[in-house]
């Protein structure tokens, strides 16, 4: 059992596994597809490189756009994959800390 905070974020990002990601996603009724995994793994790489989650939705969209182009780096695409606040939802599933500027 991994320790999560009151918002569902892992207390220790290194405890993350793909099974944990599936469990967290299922709590939000998200069935992870290849498109989800592409963004999740991108976020984990981003975190490993910068030691921070993208701090806001705007910067999350910008980072995805730079990595994957306009078709995937836009709010509508990311909201379809990760409903609500995409950066917050995606980071939670990816086992990363809560983005600092997400409500």
From TrEMBL:
<dbReference type="InterPro" id="IPR025526">
    <property type="entry name" value="DsrC-like_dom_sf"/>
</dbReference>
<protein>
    <recommendedName>
        <fullName>Sulfurtransferase</fullName>
        <ecNumber>2.8.1.-</ecNumber>
    </recommendedName>
</protein>
<dbReference type="InterPro" id="IPR007453">
    <property type="entry name" value="DsrC/TusE"/>
</dbReference>
<comment type="similarity">
    <text>Belongs to the dsrC/tusE family.</text>
</comment>
<comment type="function">
    <text>Part of a sulfur-relay system.</text>
</comment>
<keyword id="KW-0808">Transferase</keyword>
<dbReference type="GO" id="GO:0002143">
    <property type="term" value="P:tRNA wobble position uridine thiolation"/>
</dbReference>
<feature type="active site" description="Cysteine persulfide intermediate">
    <location>
        <position position="102"/>
    </location>
</feature>
<dbReference type="GO" id="GO:0005737">
    <property type="term" value="C:cytoplasm"/>
</dbReference>
<dbReference type="GO" id="GO:0097163">
    <property type="term" value="F:sulfur carrier activity"/>
</dbReference>
<dbReference type="GO" id="GO:0016740">
    <property type="term" value="F:transferase activity"/>
</dbReference>
<keyword id="KW-0963">Cytoplasm</keyword>
<dbReference type="Pfam" id="PF04358">
    <property type="entry name" value="DsrC"/>
</dbReference>
<dbReference type="InterPro" id="IPR042072">
    <property type="entry name" value="DsrC-like_C"/>
</dbReference>
